[in-house]
């Protein structure tokens, strides 16, 4: 069964794209928690970061570099932003498909959650 993100990648469900390349897609979150809230999602399914393997190293690095490039493109790189990866139920994971949240555009408090 396909995850929600696989359906978006396959264009079965619409989403507002922020970026796409051969390795990942980035979409604007439908329930944003900050003025900028983009999800960077690998096209190849990795269920969660805790299940990533050494074979996924290049993909993981690509997600982070893409998020940083999007922060620059979306105008939040200079003021700051947060990258979040949820893992498991208690970590806030809601879709079993690894993704990086890019949040910014306002001061973000600490600690989160």
UniProtKB/TrEMBL annotation:
<dbReference type="Pfam" id="PF01230">
    <property type="entry name" value="HIT"/>
</dbReference>
<dbReference type="GO" id="GO:0016787">
    <property type="term" value="F:hydrolase activity"/>
</dbReference>
<feature type="short sequence motif" description="Histidine triad motif">
    <location>
        <begin position="97"/>
        <end position="101"/>
    </location>
</feature>
<feature type="active site" description="Tele-AMP-histidine intermediate">
    <location>
        <position position="99"/>
    </location>
</feature>
<dbReference type="InterPro" id="IPR011146">
    <property type="entry name" value="HIT-like"/>
</dbReference>
<protein>
    <submittedName>
        <fullName>HIT-like protein</fullName>
        <ecNumber>3.-.-.-</ecNumber>
    </submittedName>
</protein>
<keyword id="KW-0378">Hydrolase</keyword>
<feature type="domain" description="HIT">
    <location>
        <begin position="4"/>
        <end position="113"/>
    </location>
</feature>
<dbReference type="InterPro" id="IPR036265">
    <property type="entry name" value="HIT-like_sf"/>
</dbReference>
<dbReference type="InterPro" id="IPR001310">
    <property type="entry name" value="Histidine_triad_HIT"/>
</dbReference>
